[in-house]
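Good morning N.,

You mentioned wanting to compare the apo and holo forms, so I went ahead and generated the holo version with magnesium ion. This is what I fed in:
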Amino acid sequence: MHAPSRSLRVSAIVPAAGSGTRFGAGRNKTLLLLEGEPLIAHVVRALGADPRVVEIVLVGKAAEREELLRAATRGCAPRVALRWAAGGAERRDSVRNGLEAADPTSEILLVHDGARPFLSAEVLARVIDAAVAQGAALCTLPAVDTVKRVDAAGRVLATLDRREIHLAQTPQAFRRELGLPAYRRACEEGWPTTDDVHVLELAAASGALPSVVAVPGDPRNRKITVPADLPTAHPEARAMNPPATGGPSFRVGSGFDLHRMVEGRPCILGGVRFEHDRGPLGHSDGDALLHALTDALLGAAGLDDLGTFFPDSDPRWKGADSAALLREAWTRVREQGYTLENCDLVVIAEKPKLAPRRAELRARIAALLEVEIERVNLKGKTAEKLGPIGAGEAIVAQATVLLRRG
Ligand code: MG
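and this is what came out, ligand included:
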């Protein structure tokens, strides 16, 4: 192996268009949480562990661009550039788009699955070193079980020499001047390929390229394919595979909101309408209590805040029913495997008076969250006539929530 050159530049391409259909989640599985962080953030952090990796090109669906980049940024070292390329019809086309978008001064182009979060720095370095030395490389695992070739009718045709059977993982890497022309040809001529360096193997078979080499991978560097691979990140996974520690985990969240109270607006609070000559000003219905609660739930789950999910610059949310926004956000939180242990809510306002309708408010919020009323507490305070809240010109709400998983 060559000693790694300090000035060598590696661009990592990460296909992250996974639809998550095998999860039944209907969501991109690279956005599911592992230990409170999206899978893609783990992947980006693992790739950035090698100082030769200078940029990471995410390849995905246009509709998921913002969410994927935001999630990936959480794991991205400041010295690594994060770029975007649009996905193609097949993995090969997606990877090619990523390769084309990569910095042309990178000598090594490396491809790593967006759903392999457990990549070690050792395996990454091994693949890069081998690609530098040999032109193209991937990491593999030895086959543990005996491998049979079987026909469609189930008849065993042969027992293969297991020593020659390797199972492919990623990363897979190659020198730019070898890989890029091969990829362009493969896409234009529609070569049937099943993984990334397969393109280079086919080119090598025609004598145009050196052979691809295999270096040892790591059994822990597995791909998240089915819920059981991700023990605590999805309710389905939780049911199949309870946490190894046996105990539940808890996460706390807090939310705050303030709205100006103006004449001529309906007074909506906690999803309930009050008779009052003023109401909260806002792009949506201005329900400060539900906004604070929504932010607390999202915050406890480690997700983005209300304003990011439902930006007030987006005309879709103009006059929006905050109860619908709460339910949408709560669905996202529950998708991560959480249930509500309890929430404690405070409203600070001179008017309207909450006390007479406290039970109704608790019941309404419990119904929105689909939990027992005992899990929702609420209290009303005044500001002792002090400041804008005391003058009835503003309303404030605070929320504290506790989420449970497992
Ligand atoms: Mg608000």
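The chain has two domains: 10-240, 249-405.

Happy to go through it together on a call whenever suits you.

Best,
F.
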